[in-house]
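[Discussion] Sanity-checking designs against the backbone

I'm trying to build intuition for which residues belong where. Below is a structure token string of 340 positions. I'd appreciate it if someone posts a full sequence so I can compare it with mine line by line.
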């Protein structure tokens, strides 16, 4: 805790903090928790105070060329960052590019990079999780930053065969990996100094939100299960250990009650045994099953404490598991929905 206090104190006066917008709602650390968070009833939506990405600087000039070894142990030389594509399943990489101050160089986006500043960009993923190679090539990117969360198999090789430098990043998403991923993206784009500043700013915001969230939790040990649901395709999955959902839940002082490794189909018996106090879902997923009432029809949900009390918390699909520059704000918003 002493080290954490020093980190927070150092972050309060650094140049990165000057670019952080003032909150329009009371700071999390000033809020009081509900008398017993486990007895709360009814659904709620977790939101962030400012959905846009605040760049670390408005004037950033990449130092190129640069050569990096990516997550697949491939050496890639980047000679231009004039037209960037940063693509992954959760919008993490696109958000990071904007946070580094290079948003004006983005040529397109994935379906999850939906914050306001990026909304004007053309989407080059199809069905949410597939790279559209033809659409990407047409945008004439000078570099593509991606990971292994998007298909189809062989897309990366096709892009490289077209003469496009492709840097494959670590696909792991977790609270403790945000700074590392930020630095990796920054190094590939020739802005390592901005990468260090953004990583520092984000770490400070994360630790501040974690401290405030754990205070609000007050040892309530709220049991939470993250469900990934898509009504159109009939997908009902529990996101457990190693998916990032577990890390998100524990970061705000709650207990990941999933009891599974990775993603697993919803089992009514296992869900009943998990006995979550809260079910966490993505907002679009909740809408796809017909809202809270529709979610009650997913086998096993209605039989849980969360189902009986309608304690369903939803959060924007492009934010909740993004683990990018908005991570601190996501933890802040989730803690408010869970405890206040």
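Best answer:
Here's mine. Compare freely.
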């Amino acid at each position: 805790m002493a080290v954490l206090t020093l980190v927070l104190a150092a972050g309060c006066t650094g140049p990165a903090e000057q670019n952080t917008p003032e909150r329009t709602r009371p700071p999390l650390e000033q809020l009081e928790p509900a008398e017993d968070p486990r007895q709360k009833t009814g659904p709620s939506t977790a939101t962030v105070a400012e959905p846009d990405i605040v760049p670390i600087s408005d004037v950033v000039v990449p130092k190129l060329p640069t050569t990096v070894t990516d997550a697949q142990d491939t050496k890639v030389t980047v000679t231009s960052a004039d037209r960037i594509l940063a693509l992954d399943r959760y919008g993490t990489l696109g958000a990071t590019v904007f946070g580094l101050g290079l948003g004006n160089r983005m040529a397109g986006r994935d379906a999850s990079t939906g914050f306001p500043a990026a909304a004007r960009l053309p989407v080059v993923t199809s069905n949410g999780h597939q790279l559209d190679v033809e659409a990407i090539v047409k945008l004439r990117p000078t570099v593509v930053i991606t990971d292994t969360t998007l298909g189809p198999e062989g897309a990366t090789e096709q892009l490289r065969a077209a003469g496009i430098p492709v840097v494959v990043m670590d696909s792991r998403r977790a609270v403790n990996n945000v700074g590392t991923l930020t630095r990796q993206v920054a190094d590939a784009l020739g802005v390592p100094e901005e990468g260090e500043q953004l990583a520092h700013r984000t770490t400070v915001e994360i630790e501040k939100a974690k401290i405030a969230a754990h205070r609000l939790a007050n040892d309530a040990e709220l049991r939470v299960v993250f469900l990934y649901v898509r009504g159109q395709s009939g997908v009902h999955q529990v996101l457990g250990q190693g998916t990032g959902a577990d890390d998100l839940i524990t970061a705000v002082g709650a207990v990941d009650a999933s009891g599974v490794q990775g993603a697993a189909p919803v089992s009514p018996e296992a869900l009943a045994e998990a006995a979550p106090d809260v079910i966490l879902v993505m907002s679009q997923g909740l809408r796809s099953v017909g809202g809270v009432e529709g979610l009650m029809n997913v086998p096993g949900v209605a039989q849980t404490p969360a189902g009986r009390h309608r304690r369903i918390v939803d959060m924007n699909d492009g934010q909740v598991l993004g683990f990018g520059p908005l991570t601190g704000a996501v933890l802040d918003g989730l803690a408010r929905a869970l405890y206040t």
